């Protein structure tokens, strides 16, 4: 959600396109960049955007809020886009409140400050449009600082482009195409630093539909036409101590509509949440899931593969609720088992 720097981010080599590529089969990245808009206009249109079908079911993993490049326009040179500094700060807070009212908590919001302004280059653009220079880098810095402060007060993350692009006296002009908007290097810069903030928010999300190698060639429908059903492949299962019931092991993780939620450990691995369902049962560190993906409902099979069905909303599971998967095995608990 932002101005032209967000709107243009889906162009070739844009930062938005790069983020969308990283999240292929995990998230749809929805571009709501509005060229020329400031934070005053943004807070007015945001409720309308949140009512759109793409925002349904509170299924938003993260939101970037990227305003300020127009707000910081000089009042006497560009009164239409200018927003006073204090109002800009309050607008960011109001945007956070509006997102919260739609179910998007502050920990899923990332503010992005305006980038620096290269005045000589931007002045050339202004002259071509028949107007005087209407932005100063010092003013952009004030709005960037206000954005950082608002993020601290709202409890959101913030990507301070204005500071990072000028860190250690580096030549920030290489990040700008016209003194205001981003160059290819600027887009790469934003993508790299934004991903550092986004990755932890999306790493746990499941991939949509099975990997091609997991599709049953003899019966593809059984692999592809399933809903809220998951396959859990156990790579290792090492109990720390004897459980209260012989042959039982407890795995504790979280379930989301569409897949298990646990910390990613590689391209297709998850780490089991390291806490016990019962005080006398503990899960060993290093227990890994080899993969989690949709699968038809089945009983647990031998060979270290546990296939579990019926874990969707129809079975009473809610997003974010803890799910205990109890494996009852033979002998050491590593043989064929029931799942419950």
UniProtKB/TrEMBL annotation:
Keywords: Hydrolase
Domain (SGNH hydrolase-type esterase) ranges: 1-188
Pfam families referenced in this protein's UniProt entry, alphabetically: Lipase_GDSL_2
Top EC category: hydrolase
Keyword Hydrolase in record: yes
Enzyme Commission numbers on file: 3.1.1.47
Keyword Hydrolase: yes
Name of the protein this chain belongs to: Isoamyl acetate-hydrolyzing esterase 1 homolog
Species of the source: Etheostoma spectabile
Lineage of the species this protein comes from: Eukaryota, Metazoa, Chordata, Craniata, Vertebrata
């Amino acid at each position: 959600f932002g101005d032209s720097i967000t709107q243009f981010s889906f162009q070739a080599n844009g930062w938005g396109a790069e983020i969308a590529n990283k999240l292929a089969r995990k998230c749809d990245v929805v571009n709501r960049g509005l060229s020329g808009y400031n934070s005053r206009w943004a807070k007015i249109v945001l409720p309308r955007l949140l009512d759109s079908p793409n925002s349904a079911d509170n299924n938003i993993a993260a939101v970037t809020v990227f305003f300020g490049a127009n707000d910081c326009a000089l009042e006497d040179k560009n009164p239409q886009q200018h927003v006073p500094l204090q109002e800009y700060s309050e607008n960011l807070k109001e945007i956070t409140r509006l997102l919260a009212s739609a179910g998007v908590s502050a920990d899923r919001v990332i503010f992005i400050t305006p980038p620096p302004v290269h005045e000589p280059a931007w002045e050339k653009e202004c002259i071509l449009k028949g107007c005087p220079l209407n932005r100063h880098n010092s003013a952009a810095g004030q709005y960037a600082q206000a954005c950082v402060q608002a993020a601290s007060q709202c409890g959101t993350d913030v990507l301070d482009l204005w500071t990072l692009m000028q860190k250690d006296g580096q030549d920030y002009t290489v990040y700008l195409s016209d003194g205001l908007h981003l160059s290819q290097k600027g887009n790469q810069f934003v993508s790299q630093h934004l991903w550092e903030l986004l990755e932890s928010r999306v790493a746990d999300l499941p991939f949509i539909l099975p990997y091609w190698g997991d599709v049953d060639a003899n019966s593809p429908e059984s692999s592809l036409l399933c809903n809220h059903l998951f396959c859990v492949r156990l790579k290792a299962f090492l109990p720390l101590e004897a459980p209260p019931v012989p042959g039982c092991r407890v795995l504790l993780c979280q379930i989301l509509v569409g897949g298990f939620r646990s910390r990613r450990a590689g391209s297709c691995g998850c780490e089991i949440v390291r806490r016990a369902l019962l005080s006398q049962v503990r899960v060993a560190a290093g227990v890994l899931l080899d993969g989690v993906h949709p699968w038809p409902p089945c009983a647990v099979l031998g060979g270290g593969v546990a296939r579990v069905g019926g874990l969707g909303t129809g079975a009473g599971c809610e997003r974010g609720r803890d799910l205990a998967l109890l494996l009852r095995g033979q002998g050491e608990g590593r043989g064929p088992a029931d799942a419950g």
